[in-house]
Design goal:
With 366 residues, the protein is α/β, with parallel strands linked by helices. The chain has helices at 13-22, 26-33, 39-47, 52-71, 100-111, 129-137, 152-171, 195-203, 209-214, 231-241, 253-263, 279-283, 290-308, 313-323, 332-346, 352-362, and strands spanning 75-78, 90-93, 118-122, 140-143, 177-180, 218-225, 269-273.
Length: 366
């Protein structure tokens, strides 16, 4: 079932491992993640994996923590105790980095003694056999974007299909699932849940709108980065959009964003697991129209994410610099570091870029 979008099953893992280690880009991946280990050693390790769980525990766990050690000042989590060990969840997260939002969650789930989740993976990103093999071996499944379909009707059909798969994964495969709260990353620092995502959740869950959502066990997540992933790339996109012209992605832009997000310094990173949505909250919305129901469910998710989002000195400094004040508490060292980062990022671009960067960082306070 769902063979065209699902992750690899365990029977497909050995062949995927062999393709992975034979790929011409594999040595580059190894040298970045594990410079102290030989490519031959890593290839042998991956070649020994026979199941998804082995691949994640033997390779991905160390690979992600390698990124934590190289590019962050620490990864922290709160709220794992809110998760029932016997329940599988639909984790709905704000979205700041293409790959790392979900990747960081996976190692934290393992650290908490839970199984990893399946992960939605945009069809626009599934290019290149190495990316596909790493993704589908890491429990990623394909989800369509509006730009990857031919018509609104086609998008609706494929959205229903993905929704059916998500319900199947949670209720029958007993796998949790991670998905972003909106199509694409937050660019302006203002996190909000797309009502269309809530509509999609319900498409595959039957005619009862409350049961369709309640059966997914939605658990909102708030992820916050001290240094916004791909901040200058997001600022450039917002600047170009401000001209009023439609923004057209450049060739290789998504892949560049993936690499930038992975390699750049992120400072401290925090994930908050919030209280899952309660059936009683959803039942209270039963009398609403479908559109109003979707809007109110999105509002419930937004409220949890915003309450749990961790603010950093970078957010307070940006707000003060925009306002020309010093209303918040932070050190002169933190202020100098932020100014230097801002100057370095924006030095080759129009002056408007600096203000856009400030608004991105101040967004969570607005």
């Amino acid at each position: 079932m769902f063979d065209d979008i699902r992750p690899y099953n365990d029977q497909e893992i050995p062949a995927a491992m062999q393709r992975m280690v034979s790929d011409k880009y594999f040595p580059l991946v190894c040298n970045f993640l594990f410079p102290e280990r030989s490519v031959h050693e890593i290839a042998a390790l991956i070649g020994s994996c026979r199941t998804t769980e082995e691949f994640q525990r033997k390779f991905m766990y160390d690979a992600i923590y390698s990124l934590v050690h190289k590019t962050t000042d620490g990864l922290s989590v709160e709220g794992m105790e809110r998760l029932d060990p016997g329940t599988d969840y639909l984790f709905v997260s704000n979205h700041r980095d293409i790959m790392l939002d979900a990747a960081f969650l996976q190692v934290l789930l393992l650290d908490a003694g839970r199984r990893t989740s399946e992960i939605t993976f945009g069809a626009n990103l599934m290019h290149g056999q190495l990316v596909i093999d790493i993704g589908k071996s890491n429990k990623m499944f394909r989800i369509e974007r509006p730009t990857t379909v031919t018509s609104p009707r086609d998008f609706l059909i494929k959205s229903r299909y993905v929704s059916e798969y998500m319900h199947y994964a949670i209720s029958q495969k007993h796998e949790s699932v991670w998905i972003a709260q909106r199509n694409g990353r937050t660019k302006d620092g203002l996190d909000s849940t797309d009502q269309g995502i809530i509509k999609m959740f319900g498409l595959g869950g039957g005619p009862d709108k409350v049961e369709a959502i309640a059966s997914l066990n939605i658990c909102p997540l708030a992820i916050s980065y001290e240094w916004e992933p791909c901040d200058i790339l997001k600022a450039i996109e917002l600047y170009e959009k401000s001209s009023g012209k439609p923004y057209v992605k450049k060739p290789g832009e998504d892949f560049n964003s993936i690499l930038t997000g992975i390699t750049q310094q992120k400072g401290r990173v925090h994930i908050a697991v919030t209280e899952p949505l309660h059936r009683e909250e959803l039942e209270a919305l039963r009398g609403l129209t479908q559109a109003a129901f979707n809007r109110e469910v999105a509002a419930l998710i937004d409220a949890r994410i915003k309450d749990a989002y961790r603010l950093w000195p970078t957010n307070y400094i940006a707000k003060d610099l925009l306002d020309g004040t010093r209303a918040y508490s932070y050190t002169d060292k933190e202020l100098d570091a932020f100014r230097q980062h801002l100057d370095q990022c924006s030095k080759d671009y129009p002056p408007e870029i600096k203000e856009i960067l400030l608004k991105i960082y101040a967004g969570p306070l607005l």
